[in-house]
Inverse folding.
């Protein structure tokens, strides 16, 4: 990884973020470029941003617990449901002041713990009664799930979004079992289907829609796309969404 490549990735991620440079942690997640890769050329992230032609964002003060819960509540009220991780990522990408999904994970741990805390926060506040009910419903349905299972577990809460190749076309779809859809398609397609990459997610519908929209200009038919090496590389950077 040389200096020019890093600068190119800074410019690309900034453009994709609406012209606002992203932080070094998010940059690593988006590109796979580690801190020690860019620190060969700059001692500070702000220096790398300056050389790329951007002014570093002012750092937001650390969110206190009430602030991040209230932001989660307002998003839940807007959506009419408890946000998935995909919803949180989408909001953060469109609103830099919204806490990143990892903030909730680090602060509260598993989703069930977050919702329990959220329910306690909402139940004494009349303006949040609708979200309190959503919390009760979620805990009733998921309270028996082992709280030792984190998002890093090999067990997936919902499913996968996959990229499959057949001939010169690629299919972006979703499934509950990684590998199962490849087997099913192999029975239907004239050319052998092979899995290129799988993203584990708690929101298969939303994440599948995200990639369909991102590659909309390259859609050929249904869920099939004509992707190039750069497109495939972008998809393969994600392990979990």
């Amino acid at each position: 990884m040389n200096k020019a490549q890093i600068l190119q990735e800074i410019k690309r991620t900034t453009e994709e973020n609406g012209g606002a440079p992203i932080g070094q942690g998010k940059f690593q997640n988006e590109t796979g470029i580690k801190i020690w890769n860019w620190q060969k050329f700059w001692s500070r992230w702000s220096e790398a941003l300056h050389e790329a032609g951007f002014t570093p964002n002012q750092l937001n003060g650390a969110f206190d617990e009430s602030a991040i819960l209230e932001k989660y509540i307002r998003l839940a009220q807007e959506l009419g449901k408890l946000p998935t991780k995909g919803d949180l990522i989408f909001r953060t990408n469109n609103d830099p002041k919204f806490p990143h999904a990892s903030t909730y994970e680090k602060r509260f741990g598993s989703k069930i713990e977050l919702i329990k805390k959220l329910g306690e926060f909402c139940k004494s506040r009349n303006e949040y009664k609708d979200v309190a009910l959503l919390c009760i419903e979620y805990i009733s349905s998921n309270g028996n799930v082992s709280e030792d299972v984190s998002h890093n577990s090999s067990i997936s809460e919902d499913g996968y979004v996959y990229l499959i190749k057949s001939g010169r076309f690629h299919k972006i779809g979703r499934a509950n079992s990684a590998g199962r859809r490849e087997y099913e398609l192999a029975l239907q397609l004239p050319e052998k289907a092979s899995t290129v990459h799988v993203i584990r997610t708690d929101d298969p519908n939303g994440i599948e829609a995200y990639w369909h929209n991102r590659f909309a200009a390259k859609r050929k038919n249904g869920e099939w796309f004509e992707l190039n090496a750069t497109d495939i590389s972008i998809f393969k950077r994600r392990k979990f969404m």
Remarks:
- Confidence is low (pLDDT under 50) at residues 58-62, 144-157, 178-190.
